[in-house]
Amino acid sequence: MTTVQKFDDQQILSNVMTIISKHAQNRSALKNVSLETNILRDLQVNSAKFVDIVLDMEDAFSFQINDDDADKISTVGDAVHLVKKMLH
């Protein structure tokens, strides 16, 4: 029997932020992150590290993110929204 882990909104945000913060170059920007924070521009995540974020999200939440969905992620809120959509 396979158990599917349930995540509430706060756990999703916390897990997404943990993943993103590992790859952010602008460490000081992490102190003021909001759902509108742009991952590439504000947190200075380069494209290679962005791929790592997507892979880490797949591992953390046990689902696959297709390229079209990954291309739609630009803000922290986009990442959280995608995870919520994929889990429901």
Explain this structure.
This protein has one domain (9-87): Orthogonal Bundle (Non-ribosomal Peptide Synthetase Peptidyl Carrier Protein, Chain A), CATH 1.10.1200.10. It is globular and about 30 Å long. The protein is mainly alpha-helical and 88 residues long. The model has no long low-confidence stretch (mean pLDDT 94). Helix 1 runs antiparallel to helix 2 and helix 1 (9-23) packs across helix 4 (76-87). It has helices at residues 9-23, 47-61, 67-71, 76-87. The protein is built from four helices and no strands.
List the helices and strands and how they pair.
Elements: H1 9-23, H2 47-61, H3 67-71, H4 76-87
Helix pairs in contact: 1-2, 1-4
Radius of gyration: 13 Å
CATH architecture: Orthogonal Bundle
**Structural domain count:** 1
Q: List how many beta strands DSSP finds.
A: 0
CATH C-level class: Mainly Alpha
Give the strand content.
under 5%
What's the CATH H-level homologous superfamily? ACP-like
Q: How many H/I helical runs?
A: 4
Q: Helicity, in percent?
A: 40-55%
Give the end-to-end Cα distance, rounded to a whole number of Å: 20 Å
The main β sheet shows up as: none
Order of helices and strands, N to C?
Answer: HHHH
- Taking all residues together, what is the mean pLDDT? 94
List unreliable stretches of 5+ residues: none
Overall form:
globular
For this structure, the CATH topology is Non-ribosomal Peptide Synthetase Peptidyl Carrier Protein, Chain A
